[in-house]
Specification:
Strand order of the largest sheet: 3-2-1-7-19-18
Oligomer: single chain
Helix content: 25-40%
CATH superfamily of the largest domain: FAD/NAD(P)-binding domain
Number of strands: 19
CATH class of the largest domain: Alpha Beta
Radius of gyration: 25 Å
Shape: globular
Number of domains: 3
């Protein structure tokens, strides 16, 4: 008897769940009621996967408010398949409270759900329950001919000819899964130690030091960090925030009246980075009034024109000027419409001249200077990106005071609707991101800049950081951080450009960041085998995929008919597998295109009598 057609989704986290939701949405149109075996491979529970698994500390939060998180499409998403409405996280919690939904969650998480408001920052274990429910709802929506098989294990390799069935070898079974098509949605990667990290790890072993390489912080072994011991931390983004939480509240400290009361079990965290400042806080007020029309200067036509060019694109030359103009459009539209008392030209006059001026030109700078008298109301992307460039302090203590003032000012501004042009720029960033993912690999700088401005921590986390700084548990090192190894003394040494001549020595170095999404250094045997088997990998180490449907490309640029890949390790990486409602999340568009491509391929294969190998 001929087996049913089969598809294997490797990775059961939010991205894999999103693809399955789109398979369910498109199956009736593209596949009908024929038989199909759908295999889901992940060592962690499907829905949340590894990053959003339920067994995490309740101290770890999401970096988005509940009302800003959805796994479901709406009419703002560009997609060929049907929109299937579903609740955002806050609406889902309301459905749980009303008894309309019964999630698979333990009593502690249920209590969190019952207390959740739209402006709250949920715990990651609460988000895990939402993702699991989304996954189960997608399975329930599949046609009866589709049979789902879950495999709680790790996929090791994918082999097989372009014209035949694929073989997916699993960690704990001798026989491979046979499938007609494979979708890789493995999420964030574990990394092999790239040369610098390997050298640091070797140094640490020789001198009995502690070196924690880039990793998902919840999986790092923090027990080796001793109370009172200085720890050099390289990285000031979201991974640092997790580290800070687990080593303070996670070790029994607590906050009272805005001050931190140590438990005595905390190490002392000396933190720095290239920028030397934390990511900007999440904006703490809602949108009101007229939205800036987006996209305006960087839309689909602009993207198509760039894609039609021959030769590689240079981000700074070909892309950044349009990005800067689009973000400026969002900023000044809001300034003129919501805060006209801080402008000196009629909005219509400014908008016409702004649209006509070349990005970065003296004419544009002159127009802005004329129309916006206060320099503090002008958008300066370079200053936003590198606020400590050229800043020097004569002592580490002076830096502590200055950086506390900087963080306090950032918190105040990000919670003040009188600066709502910042929220407009955030919306502009989302619009720009949706277009840039169509261009493929544009380098890593843009993704870091986007995260720094648009994906920072909740405001309360920065309030905690200030309290930890005042308590001496966190010490700021500054910008341009470098880490050296001293073979004679057997120590790590950190220096920054912000405090010339100063340095910090420690037995412990923590790299507070996720591993780079690079196939060149990945520890994943699955992706290493794919890389070594002829899949195209960019200079940045990303897996090359067709932007139209996420099929994996080979070294000759040919899309593989039976292999698709989505996620941060590909050239079509999007900002996240879930997003704000009504912002046209590009990941949803990608999920839909991939699901439709898979269903169409499997339908056509069945109509041809199926090729076997």
């Amino acid at each position: 008897m001929t087996p049913a057609p089969g598809i294997v989704v490797i990775g059961g986290g939010p991205r894999g769940t999103g693809v399955i939701e789109r398979i369910a949405a498109n199956a009736a149109e593209l596949y009908g009621d024929g038989p199909l075996d759908l295999h889901v491979v992940d060592p962690h529970p499907a829905g949340g996967g590894r990053i959003w698994r339920p067994d995490q500390s309740p101290l770890l939060w999401m970096n988005s408010m509940a009302e800003d998180v959805t796994m479901f499409t709406d009419e703002t998403v560009e997609l060929a398949g049907p929109v299937v409405a579903g609740p955002a996280l806050d609406a889902w919690a309301e459905d749980v409270r009303a008894g309309r939904i019964t999630p698979d969650a333990d009593p502690a998480v249920l209590a969190e759900i019952h207390g959740l408001a739209g402006a709250d920052f949920p715990t990651r274990r609460l988000q895990s329950a939402y993702l699991r429910w989304t996954y189960e709802r997608a399975l329930a929506a599949l046609p009866p001919g589709i049979t789902v098989h879950e495999h709680r294990t790790t996929a090791l390799t994918v082999t097989g000819p372009r014209g035949g069935r694929q073989r997916v070898r699993l960690q704990d079974r001798p026989e491979p899964l046979l499938a007609d098509l494979v979708v890789l949605t493995v999420g964030h990667l574990d990394a092999e130690q790239e040369p610098e990290q390997k050298g640091l790890a070797d140094f640490a072993r020789r001198h009995a030091l502690v070196h924690l390489p880039p990793d998902f912080t919840a999986d790092s072994d923090l027990d080796a960090l001793r109370p009172g011991e200085p720890v050099i931390v390289r990285g000031f983004g979201l991974a640092f925030v997790d580290l800070m939480v687990l080593l303070t509240e996670g070790r029994g400290g607590r906050y009272e009246n805005g001050e931190y009361l140590p438990s005595g079990r905390e190490p002392v965290l000396y933190v720095g980075s290239r920028r030397g400042v934390p990511y900007h806080a999440k904006i703490g007020y809602p949108w009101t009034g007229e939205r800036p029309p987006l996209p305006q200067h960087l839309g689909p036509e602009w993207t198509e024109e760039l894609l039609s060019r021959t030769g590689p694109l240079d981000f700074r030359r070909d892309i950044w000027p349009a990005v800067a103009k689009e973000l400026g459009h969002a900023h000044y539209h809001r300034l003129f419409t919501a805060h006209p008392e801080r402008t000196a030209l009629a909005h219509e006059v400014f908008a016409e001249k702004y649209a006509a001026a070349d990005p970065g030109s003296p004419e544009l700078a002159g127009l802005i200077a004329e129309a916006v008298p206060d320099p503090a109301d002008r958008l300066d992307l370079d200053a936003l990106d590198r606020p400590l460039d050229g800043v020097r302090h004569d002592s580490p203590e002076a830096l502590q005071e200055a950086l506390r003032s900087y963080i306090s000012a950032d918190l105040a501004r990000r919670h003040d609707p009188e600066h709502s042009e910042d929220l407009a720029v955030f919306l502009g960033l989302l619009s720009v991101y949706a277009q840039l993912v169509r261009l493929g690999d544009i380098g890593s700088w843009w993704h870091g800049f986007f995260s720094y401005l648009a994906s920072g921590p909740p405001g309360p986390r920065l309030q905690q950081l200030l309290a930890l700084s005042r308590a001496g548990v966190v010490r700021f090192l500054g910008a341009g951080l470098t880490v050296e190894t001293d073979e004679d003394q057997g120590l790590f040494r950190a220096r920054s450009a912000t405090v010339p001549g100063a340095h910090t020595e420690a037995r412990v170095l923590v790299e507070a960041r996720l591993p780079d999404p690079s196939l060149r250094h990945t520890a994943s045997p699955l992706l290493r085998a794919l890389r070594d088997g002829g899949a195209a990998v960019t200079d940045d180490g990303l897996l090359a995929v067709d932007p139209a449907d996420s099929r994996v490309l080979d070294d000759e640029g040919r899309p593989h008919p039976r292999r698709l890949a989505l996620g941060p390790f590909t050239t079509a990486r999007a900002g996240g597998a879930f997003t704000r409602p009504r912002t046209g999340g590009p990941a949803f568009r990608q999920n839909d295109a991939a699901a439709r491509a898979a269903l169409t391929f499997l339908r056509d294969l069945s109509c041809r009598g199926r090729l076997a190998s």
